[in-house]
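Sample entry copied in:
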Amino acid sequence: MPSPYTIRPFASHTDRAQCVALQELTWGQGFTEKIPAAMLLVAQKTGGVCAGAFDADGRMLGFVFGVTGVQDGELMHWSDMLAVHPDARGQHLGEQLKAFQRDHCRALGIKHIYWTYDPLVARNAHLNLARMGARVREFVPAMYGEGTNSPLQGDMPTDRFVVAWAVDPVDAAAPLHGLPAEAVQAVDAAGNPAAAWPDATHVVVRAPRDITALAATDLDAARRWRFGTRAAFQHYLGHGYHVAGFVADDDGGSYLISRTAP
């Protein structure tokens, strides 16, 4: 069957205005990290990606935005924002927008696309690491500050994983299909870190199913998750470990943190 939408670059101020409106719908009217229409235009003219999925009537159902720059003498692309309208969720539209972005970057000779996500949003962890094959490059506490005035963020610091996605799918990370039997739990199913950090080859850091919903109903519990996992990620990634993958389950999921081989 034909696709119910077309993915294409923004072509008018109307497109950019729809993007701003979708940002506000997704993250709230007071969202401080909103990308204005003028910057969408500038980014597109300087090698960035400003593209949307539009239905037959020109209504935007989703968008992806990223900027292109230079890192260590090579072109790189930073995917800054992606959103899908509530009416179009559950159709893997986010992955299709990412694929469009990857094709744009491949044409420019870019090897990796970078972006951030909240480690405590289990569905995004599953999408980024398991389905798309991105790799975690670093953990940054409060990357965008102590808050963004978005109801989706809650009254918590904006801790983030920075991930790298290979433009060439051959270099994508293989998904995990389970946790090693010898893996030791470092953060439990309530967000509590171990009394002493296990010195093991593989450790497990739990993530809740929906930190956004939890923050709306039990902020104290959400903050326990935030600071418990922050301590674990900082400890292990600072001591020669890496994020080997994520395994989703009905209660959220588990990060496998493994000691990096010499």
User: Anything to note?
Assistant: The chain has six helices and eleven strands. The first strand starts at residue 6 and ends at 9. The mean pLDDT is 90. Residues 219-237 form the longest helix (19 residues).
